[in-house]
């Protein structure tokens, strides 16, 4: 994939460039300021953009701000925000519109071999990737939601793995069950969360957002 890296720390930019190159990707640019992103995406046309959450000028949530602007202008672009810490509010803002191809991971997560590549490929295919630690925190914080309370333990676990970006086959392998069993759980999750019937991928995104919004 053609990837644009945006991080104000030189060592992080260099590390991401090396990691991406070793995993077979082409780094088309490595930027240090959010203001450079929009023109670079228009000129370089990457498949995906990796953004640090905290950057100049305010060192707060610039990565989310840039991600939302990119999503409005480049619907098919894979966008991954990396952060030192899991911040529920940032994840909720990032995904509140139900956008596909958008993800939020901790920087330590991508140190696992090929984890970054798997995330980028999933985003490029229109999927959503969410930090597992963050999903767990949000589940606890919002456990009183009646729809979530209606899920069985197995259904909650399947929903958590959906949030990690796993396919039905990936979930089946993780839980050591059949793919048909996973598909049944997913269908029950959609029904119990009262999600509108549309495309399957969109319902998956909406299911994840239910954790964030309720």
UniProtKB/TrEMBL annotation:
Record-given protein name: Response regulator transcription factor
CDD domains, per database record: LuxR_C_like, REC_NarL-like
Residues of the Response regulatory domain: 2-122
GO molecular function: DNA binding
One Pfam match: Response_reg
Signal peptide feature range: none
Modification type 4-aspartylphosphate: residues: 52
SMART domains assigned to the protein according to its UniProt record, in alphabetical order: HTH_LUXR, REC
InterPro entries given in the database record: CheY-like_superfamily, NreC/VraR/RcsB-like_REC, Sig_transdc_resp-reg_receiver, Tscrpt_reg_LuxR_C, WalR-like, WH-like_DNA-bd_sf
Gene3D superfamilies per the UniProt record, alphabetical: 3.40.50.2300, Winged helix-like DNA-binding domain superfamily/Winged helix DNA-binding domain
HTH luxR-type domain location: 144-209
Keywords, sorted A to Z: DNA-binding, Phosphoprotein, Transcription, Transcription regulation
GO annotation terms (biological process): phosphorelay signal transduction system; regulation of DNA-templated transcription
